[in-house]
């Protein structure tokens, strides 16, 4: 598998994760409605958790691309 194919596969997987996080908060908040340390979990996840997951996705992309770039395929 070429580096470009690995890059496309990684990007696709991370975009799926991004889409799920975004749509879960926006379109299906009812299953997430419970109290979390005095705050509604939907509010907390929408305000803080989603941003943290987006940062994690960015970090994972950089880490995996560094690994792909170092490979000698």
Description:
The chain is mainly α and 73 residues long. The chain is built from two helices and two strands, in the order H-E-E-H. Strand 1 and strand 2 form a beta hairpin. The longest helix has 30 residues, at 41-70.
* Order of secondary-structure elements: HEEH
- SS element count, helices: 2
Q: Strand order of the main beta sheet, please?
A: 1-2
Q: Count the E strands.
A: 2
The Cα radius of gyration reads: 16 Å
Largest pleated sheet: 2 strands, antiparallel
* Anisotropy-based shape: elongated
The number of domains: 1
Q: Mean of residue pLDDT?
A: 84
Structural class: mainly alpha
> Beta-strand percentage?
5-15%
Helix share bin: over 70%
Spans of at least 5 consecutive residues with low confidence: none
Distance between the termini: 8 Å
Tags for this entry?
73 residues, mainly alpha, two-stranded antiparallel ribbon, 2 helices, elongated
Layout of helices and strands:
Layout (H helix, E strand, L loop, with lengths): L2 H25 L7 E2 L2 E2 H30 L3
Antiparallel strand pairs: 1-2
Offer a concise description of the structure:
The chain has helices at about 5-25, 40-70; strands at about 35, 40. The chain is mainly α and about 70 residues long.
